[in-house]
Amino acid sequence: MSKINIKDLCPEELEELVSSFGEEPYRARQIGKWIYRKDADSFDQMTDLPKRFKITLNDSLLLRQSLVPLNERLSSDGTKKYLFQLSDGNKIESVLIPENRRYTLCISTQVGCALGCTFCLTGRVGKMRNLKASEIVDQFLLVNNFNSGCITNLVFMGMGEPLDNLENTVRALKIFTHEDFVGISPKKITVSTSGLVPQIRELGKQVSVNLSVSLNAPLDELRNKIMPINRKYPIEELIKASRDFPMPNRKTLTFEYVLIKGLNDSDKVARTLGKLLKGISCKVNLIPFNEAFPLPYQSPGSERVFSFQDILISYGINARIRKNRGRDILGACGQLAANYPTAKGQTEQKITQGMN
Ligand code: SAH
Ligand code: SF4
Predict the structure, then answer these.
(1) Does any ligand 2 atom lie closer than 6 A to the CB of residue 115?
(2) What H or E segment, with its residue span, contains residue 312?
(3) 299-355 pLDDT, tens digit each
(4) Which residues, other chains included, contact 346 with Cβ-Cβ below 8 Å and sequence gap of 6+?
(5) Residue 25 DSSP symbol
(6) Is the CB of residue 192 below 6 angstroms from any atom belonging to ligand 1?
(7) CB of 290 closer than 6 A to ligand 1?
(8) Is-catalytic flag, 106?
(9) Which of 136, 137, 108 is nearest to 35 (CA)?
(10) Under a CB-based contact definition with an 8 Å cutoff, are residues 159 and 109 in contact?
(11) How far apart are CA 28 and CA 46, in angstroms?
(12) DSSP helix, strand, coil percent of the chain (3-state; round to 5)
């Protein structure tokens, strides 16, 4: 039988395993500190564990890095995009976004994505597979290491739909937030979803982190066209589940809204959105569409974006315009494709080369 990678286990699962070996549960926390705080890459380095226990660990578990870094690209705005190879040859990307003293890592949860939003390059790839918890957590461990431990915030907004890989997303979140493991405050972690309603409810039962919902249209008819998942979970149900979500203390729900020229960016649509969200405690992030070949849309001009924002503000909504970081390296929202073909005969690599 192949050995389990220890980083595929969340703190509770590791505690159970440790107990099944006849050891005290606190040993799991010791191991967690070694792996996630002290960067240990072998059980033999864990000097406070008994020798016989280390033999058991070596016999039954693997402690290894699951990702091979292939490439790092630096944007003119300081954003860095990383390309990693998984052990089966698949590839994923992560993006590090510096902003003042905050360093946010945008991590992937799947190779590709099954949900097929029409404006998203990852959706064009289709879903290859879910990432394991170790592959989610290792993105953080590697990028943090490459950048002198600077990461302060995490967003689950890279490749894939985190809630379509709920089990491993939850495992990774538990590893990230446990104070004896990575130990990042849940307030500094955001999970973004396109709106899988039952999974939003399930996530809320298991962890308390910030939730960001990619709304992108205030009417079912329009949302159905650009986000096929809306046909299964329409806007009303989505908003209800989002409002019920238990956010960490003093944090508010976020709605992401990608503004696409001539599609969902008119004043009329802004007023409909204003009415929909009026009175809901939330903020809205307006993201001007990031263009990437072969996506069939365009970004609206800044005047349109400001006008849309002003209308939302007139409804009492805290609407902000998100900066498009890392656009020049195809590292911005919706541009991640990890060199997979995104249309017949086209790869992101070719597209990128064409831009240089
Ligand atoms: N699957 C999750 C998280 C990954 S997508 C989700 O959909 O929320 C992260 C964000 O990128 C989402 O808010 C999505 O609406 C946005 N996005 C996708 N394609 C985009 C594009 N071309 N330009 C701007 N934002 C985009
Ligand atoms: Fe998947 Fe999110 Fe892209 Fe939609 S926007 S295809 S859910 S990654």
Answers:
(1) yes
(2) helix 302-314
(3) 999 999 999 999 999 999 999 999 888 888 888 887 888 788 875 444 444 333 333
(4) 293, 294
(5) T
(6) yes
(7) yes
(8) no
(9) 137
(10) yes
(11) 12
(12) 40, 20, 40
Question: Which of 15, 23, 93, 161 is labelled catalytic?
Answer: 93
Full-model pTM: 0.94
What residues does 283 pair with on adjacent strands?
Answer: 254, 318
Whether the CB-CB separation of 211 and 195 falls below 8 Å is answered with no
- Residue from 82, 80, 84, 83 nearest 99 by CA: 80
**Known catalytic membership, residue 282:** no
Instruction: Give whole-number Cα distances, 143 to 34, 112, 314, 335, in Å.
Output: 18, 20, 41, 19
User: pLDDT, tens digit, for every residue of 3-33?
Assistant: 999 999 999 999 999 999 999 999 999 999 9
In angstroms, what is the span from residue 9 Cα to ligand 1's centroid?
28
- Name the token pair of 16: 């159970």
Beta pairing, strands 153-156 & 102-106: parallel
